[in-house]
Amino acid sequence: MRIGVARVSTRDQNPEAQEDALRAAGCEKVFTDKASGKLARRPELDKALMVAREGDQIVITKLDRLGRSLKNLIELSEELRSRDIGLVVLDQGIDTATPAGRLFFQIIGAIAEFEHSLMSDRTIEGLEAARARGRTGGQKPKLKARQIKLAQEMYDELGSDGKRRYTVQQIADEFGVSRPTIYRHLSKED
Fold first, then answer.
1. Distance CA 92, CA 106 (A)
2. Ranges of each domain in the chain
3. Rounded to two decimals, what is the model's pTM?
4. Alpha helices in the chain (DSSP H)
5. Active-site residue, selected from the candidate residues 9, 36, 69, 178
6. Which residue of 14, 22, 83, 168 could cross-link 4, Cys pair, CB 3.0 to 4.6 Å?
7. pLDDT digits over 38-57, tens only?
8. Topology of 2-100 in CATH?
9. Does the keyword Acetylation apply (predicted)?
């Protein structure tokens, strides 16, 4: 049996292209993780590994969809090999059932980790260069100083019954932001 494993790195990425490719490759079951970062949990991959039996194949679209580091890829490859489960990587034409496929898998894994390391280094260098020019990262503030002051005034305003006149949700709705945004700014004012 062919078992497909897909992964998207962020919540807003769409896994449908991967899932379609895996089904087209003959996968009877497809497991999709939405995970980000090296240490992110992969519950769907875990399920796929539990379902897989001797003689089955785990199929992925790209090598980086399986693991985030060469060490992780090699560990998974070793686990699959010890259980006599094949690994097929569609985009790179890798099939670990063959010696050439196993060698190619390790070479591609090393290159992928090297590329990731270079990208991380470039990102760090870019952030340092931006800081040196006085720029900081992150989102622009959702509320301006005047809006924060108004939100605080609304929060502090009491009704005739002695209770707060506006709930945090009402204040958030007024400014078009979330409640945590209002709470974050209110805590700065205290």
1. 12
2. 2-100, 145-189
3. 0.54
4. 16-24, 43-51, 70-82, 99-132, 145-156, 168-175, 179-189
5. 9
6. 22
7. 556 788 999 999 999 999 99
8. Rossmann fold (3.40.50)
9. no
Using CA atoms, how far apart are residues 88 and 60, in angstroms rounded to an integer? 6
Partner residues linked to 89 by β-bridges: 60, 94
What pLDDT, on the 0 to 100 scale, is given for residue 30? 95
Give me the phi and psi of 50, to 5 degrees please: -70, -35
Q: Is 9 a catalytic residue?
A: yes
Residue 123 has pLDDT above 80, yes or no: yes
Query: Residues 130-154, buried b or exposed e (16+ Cβ, 10 A)?
Result: eeeeeeeeeeeeebeeebbeebbeb
Most confident range (mean pLDDT) of 18-22, 131-135, 136-140 is 18-22
Which whole-number Å values give the CA distances from 119 to 36, 89, 108, 116, in the listed order?
Answer: 16, 23, 16, 5
Tokens 């340092």 correspond to: 128
Q: Which two tokens stand for residue 38?
A: 């090296």
> Does residue 190 have a pLDDT over 50?
no
Q: What is the average pLDDT value for the chain, to the nearest integer?
A: 85
